[in-house]
Amino acid sequence: MNSNWNRFKQAARLEQPDQVPVALIVDSPWLPGYAGINTLDYFLYPDKWLQINMDLLTRFPDAVWIPGFWVEYGMADLPSAFGARVHFHSNMPPSIEPVTTDISHWADAPLPDVHEDGFMPLLLRLYEQMEARLHPEGLGIKMVAARGPMVTAGWITGITELMMGIVMHPKEVHKFLDKVTTTIIRWLHAQLDTLTEPEGIMLLDDVVGMVSVNHYQEFVEPHLRRIFDEFDGLVKVYHNDTPCPHLHEAFAEANFDVFNFTHEADIAEVKAAMGHRVALMGNVAPLGLGARGTPEEVEKAAIACLDKAAPGGGMILSFGGGVSPDTKPENVDAMLRAARNWQYPSTR
Predict the structure, then answer these.
(1) How far, in Å, CA of 173 to CA of 158, rounded?
(2) What confidence tier does 141 reach under pLDDT thresholds 50, 70, 90?
(3) What domains sit in the chain, N to C, each tagged with a CATH number?
(4) How far is the CA of 329 from the CAs of 90, 137, 179, in angstroms?
(5) Residue 254 in 3-state DSSP?
(6) CA trace torsion 265, 266, 269, 274 (10° rounding)
(7) CA pseudo-torsion sign 100, 105, 106, 110
């Protein structure tokens, strides 16, 4: 585990470890189905949650799980603190429904308390308990996660209303996004404070990919920079698997270390656009190959990604997004095999 994590950190620093690390984002969309249990049970019974996540280390010993031992209720943690309606399901993560789509209401809404509001205090308590149980096993939680400002705002007020508000009510959107960003920073700090030796954060925000360059620079970039600047010294991962090649060059200035992006973007083109400023985490198709493909197809695609982007360092092999529901374990094996057997050009 430690050698895998150290390879991941090396690659995040744009270095070239002895072997390209494989890192996979896993959470409630995949893990309950993989383990064959009800999604509600995955959230409700900490012992089952812990055993499933522990079993990943045994079943796939060469993988790095991002963020790893993720305590979450799907995307519901932050929106629940703002009062969004949350619906739980037996076979998928919770869905979220805005209580009001009035952007002026949210611009003036009070900031939630991350230690008392919504599901966040329950998640913090679970982090404390699980960290205490992992330490006797010689394990710990290295990374915490939060949804980003645009996707969080979208769940709270509605995606359509948020996008329309950028054009029609920019002042209110600025004010609301500032509140959301403050809450995200406090939420990440609260999670980090429960851990003994935290080393990283992950921010996930696909909605960013839906805006233009000009709107990104005005409405999004200041908030991403504010979040990532706050956690200098930690490994910072940004996930956005919405196709948005028009933003790749701008993303390189947002002060994160690792970019996990869509399989629809050619990894060589992403590397060319971002330069040797950000490590790339991708780029095998998660649904078309991870869930529906064969191990041979996954391995072939993984090798192609490595050939394009691993030389020179800063490469982390992954799916182009999170691990999709119904992803086959043998396809994860194929990706790990590709990384294990692939060699840097100078050593072939």
Answers:
(1) 12
(2) very high
(3) 2-343 (3.20.20.210)
(4) 22, 25, 40
(5) coil
(6) 50
(7) negative
